[in-house]
Design brief:
The protein is an alpha+beta fold and 179 residues long. It has helices at 2-6, 18-25, 81-87, 96-105, 164-174, and strands at residues 30-35, 38-42, 46-51, 60-66, 111-113, 121-126, 131-136, 146-147, 150-151, 155-160. The longest helix has 11 residues, at 164-174. The two termini are 23 Å apart.
Length: 179
Amino acid sequence: MDVVMSGTVLGAKPTDSPDQVSAIMGSDFAENSLDDYSMWRDYGLVEFFWARESPDHPWEGHHFTLQVHRLSYGSSSVVNKSIREQYGRFGRHLRFDELQRLLANRGVRLEDVPDVNAPAFTLHWQPASQVSVMALREREWGRSLRLGKDLVGDVHRISSSMTAEQAAGSRARYGGQDG
């Protein structure tokens, strides 16, 4: 819930450098790159992403994503040590309606944003923190109640940063869809 309100993970901003993020999240991560211009570090539940103009330029923070769906597999190692020390144990499911209720109790409202992943997923946005929340809404093609181990109504991921321009663009592009 703090991530949705602050737009940070333990104070790490999406624009922070790799060294700044690792100073907060720790050195236990997998580093991934598709080329010399993009990189992400996987801290288990949280991934931070960077880009740069060329190998001679510094990394610039782009966004982070909490892969909340990973909780459903039940491995305690998915939650980074720094996050566990701050928040304790995590359940296997984060229900969107529960998250929305907790945020509303603190005066924080999420706006619905149409998305390309509708109708299977819904997308919600918190303008002040520029955080988006994607939730599993329904099954497609006659699948069972579970997608992997996610349940309908679970939060799938929480990401930053979604700007007002991006939210408006998604509304313009997908506004006619059921989402």
